[in-house]
Design a protein that fits this description.
Chain A is built from one helix and six strands, in the order E-E-E-E-H-E-E. Chain A is mainly β and 90 residues long. Chain A has a single domain, classed as EutN/Ccml (OB fold (Dihydrolipoamide Acetyltransferase, E2P)), CATH 2.40.50.220. Chain A has a five-stranded mixed barrel. Classes of the chains: A mainly beta (90), B mainly beta (88).
């Protein structure tokens, strides 16, 4: 899993039926120092996250499908938690 | 599987229901000589690891197997605590 910051929302009317009702958010992975790391990506949201929130993103197909509660959904990333705080040394 | 050091933990009140009661740890992958390699990541803990310990973790869907039959949405999981590494 990666820590990421929600940077935007995405609306798509025409999409695969398995996406019906799913919320799509644009997230920017960040390091422990809160600095952006890599390119932003699209993730389905299963916890009700909002823009600017720090979230936990799972980047793996089957796990993302489980988060969405649908087997065989064509997704590869999902928000599975909202980070209250990170306690890390180093 | 890969070696890593547990360098922290994460608190998330709002999360996927299948994650309730599961510890989320911050990992720094390690080379065999103990030096840090690659990006830090977050992993679920299946063995009771603590901050500062050297562990090994698995990537991918298999990370959720220790919690079977609960389908935990994760892509990385700690599956062992390392006692000793011997690299001749």
């Amino acid at each position: 899993m990666q820590i990421a910051r929600v940077v935007g929302t995405v609306v798509a009317t025409q999409k695969h039926p398995k996406f019906a009702g799913a919320k799509l958010l644009l997230v920017q992975p960040v390091g422990l120092d809160d600095k952006p790391r890599g390119t932003p990506l699209l993730a389905v949201d299963s916890v009700g996250a909002g823009v600017h929130e720090k979230v936990l993103v799972v980047i793996e197909g089957r796990a993302a499908g489980e988060a969405l509660g649908r087997k065989g959904a064509p997704v590869d990333a999902a928000i599975i938690g909202i980070v209250d705080y990170v306690d890390a040394r180093e | 599987m890969q070696l890593a050091k547990v360098i922290g933990d994460i608190v998330a009140t709002r999360k996927d229901e299948a994650l309730h009661g599961i510890k989320l740890m911050v990992l720094q992958p390690l080379a065999p000589d103990g030096s840090a390699v690659g990006r830090t990541l977050i992993a679920v803990d299946a063995v009771g690891a603590g901050v500062g310990e050297t562990v090994f973790f698995v990537r991918g869907k298999e990370a959720s197997f220790p919690f079977y039959p609960t389908e935990v949405p994760t892509d990385a999981g700690i599956v062992g605590i390392v006692d000793q590494i011997d690299v001749p």
